[in-house]
Design brief:
By secondary structure, the protein is of the alpha+beta class. It starts with 16 loop residues before the first helix and ends with a helix. About 20% of the residues lie in helices and about 30% in strands. The chain folds into two domains: about 60 residues; about 200 residues, Jelly Rolls (Sandwich), CATH 2.60.120.260.
Length: about 280
């Protein structure tokens, strides 16, 4: 009598039944093992992708200012010597040009540079904290901003240095008045990072501002600070006309923090991989 195992295209004698079963079981085990490995790879890959995305983090505000907490007053008159470079000071009853960090908004200091041999800000100019919206329509965050104009030289701001181990970027809004800028007028906004490297958000030096199509509307500026540990923001305007003005608002220093649970996901992924290998 002949006994057999079907499924191989013929009937196999009983004397070879054990061998056939072993071949069949081996082929099935190899297939099953391959499927498990593929599922493991997909599972671990998905966990890694989720965790990687989580560890990229979400933006979190490290510091900011929208110029809401400063005083808006009369036209500013510099009492310093226009022939000399010097820091500017707040004057009683006049719009503040400087601000000390109050725990809510970042502090900054204003300065003047004699680049034109002119009267500077000693003749009185609309600079500093402002709520005037006749040019901009409205501010991008709150009801106040900061204005620079007609410095008859260079007016600048230096913001407090902000340190972080999770830097992502600096963002800010700037409005440049639409007017007839001269070729020697310039606007520069930049960050000095990690003690020396300069990263521009806007730099018109060497260009005619009128040719850059940046006037008459709010511009959203960004500087990538990934991997940096500290940044000092500067804003400078060199001009000599009352119609040559810029407004700044809504400055934010951003960092990134891991999404909660990302570390657990990565740990779980490692555990899955370990268990699969032992299996």
């Amino acid at each position: 009598m002949i006994y057999g195992v079907s499924g191989f295209g013929s009937t196999i004698p009983r004397s070879h039944e054990e061998t056939a079963h072993r071949v069949f079981r081996c082929a099935w085990d190899e297939r099953t093992d391959l499927e498990i490995k593929m599922k493991n790879a997909i599972t671990i890959g998905a966990i890694a992708a989720i965790s990687g995305s989580a560890f990229a983090g979400v933006l979190t505000e490290l510091a900011s200012t929208s110029f809401e907490n400063g005083f808006v007053g009369d036209q500013y008159v510099d009492t310093g010597d226009a022939s000399m470079d010097h820091g500017l000071v707040n004057n009683a009853g006049q719009s503040w040009v400087n601000f000390v960090n109050d725990g809510v908004e970042v502090g900054f200091s204003a300065y003047y540079r004699n680049t034109r041999g002119d009267v500077g800000l000693t003749d009185g100019d609309f600079v500093g904290f402002t709520n005037f919206t006749g040019e901009v329509g409205s501010f991008t965050d709150g009801v106040q901003g900061y204005e620079m104009q007609d410095a008859d030289g260079l007016m600048g701001l230096q913001f407090d240095t902000i340190g972080s181990t999770s830097y992502q970027n600096i963002t800010m809004d700037v409005f440049i008045q639409e007017t007839g800028w001269e070729s020697d007028d310039s606007i520069r906004i930049w960050a000095v990072v990690d003690g020396g490297l300069e990263i521009d958000l806007l730099n018109t030096i060497g260009s005619d501002i009128d040719d850059l199509v940046i006037e008459g509307s709010w511009l959203d500026l960004t500087a990538d600070l990934s991997g940096m540990t500290e940044a000092t923001l500067f804003v400078e305007l060199d001009s000599n006309s009352g119609s040559e003005s810029i407004y700044i608002d809504n400055i934010v220093w951003n960092g990134a923090i891991p999404t909660p649970g990302a570390a657990s996901l990565l740990a779980f992924g490692g555990l899955v991989a370990s268990r699969r290998r032992r299996a």
